[in-house]
Specification:
The protein is an alpha+beta fold. The chain is built from nine helices and seven strands.
Length: 208
Amino acid sequence: MPDALGQALRAVARKSGWAVKRDMLSRAEGGVNLAVHPIRGEYGRIGFFAKPELWDRTLWSILQIVGNEAQPTSFRFTGWFICSVPPLVAEGLDPAARPEDHAAQMLALARRCLAERALWDGYDLDAAIAGETPSRAYSYHITRVVARICAGDRDGARAICTAARAGTLDVRRWMESADEQGWTGAVAPGLVRFVDFFELAPLWMQRN
């Protein structure tokens, strides 16, 4: 089915302005990355997703990852070191419909949501997380930290990091990276320390 859907998407999305990667439509618009794809873990449902380009760039800066900026827009929704976001709009697919019908529905959703700029430009992340059904709030703490940093709320970002490290948040998505700007050689000459995101983010805020 995914291969058939991808083929159907490529056919219907030609010259639409939306790029196709496997079962995903994506594009960048006014500094915001947009995508429509099947909701992972929910059979038969598709979602419209959006996030500012700045969020992932800030995450990569915190994690000291170089090179991801050159990846296509679809990577912002399928890569590992990315800011996860909940769907802003979700709808079901007819299980009896053909892949061509599913592709047409996805493109229609993409076009409709693109036209509703107020839906995705500067939306309230916390409200979107709270409104997701079923709730996956535990998946978005990293994104909440990054969004607060980008909005200038560094105290709020630090508070989330403190709670995550104290074990008072239900955190089920972790990232760690080498702190190449910090402590080196303490384990062995030439080695760097791998640090969890919730420790790296406060360090990044001290340095920037």
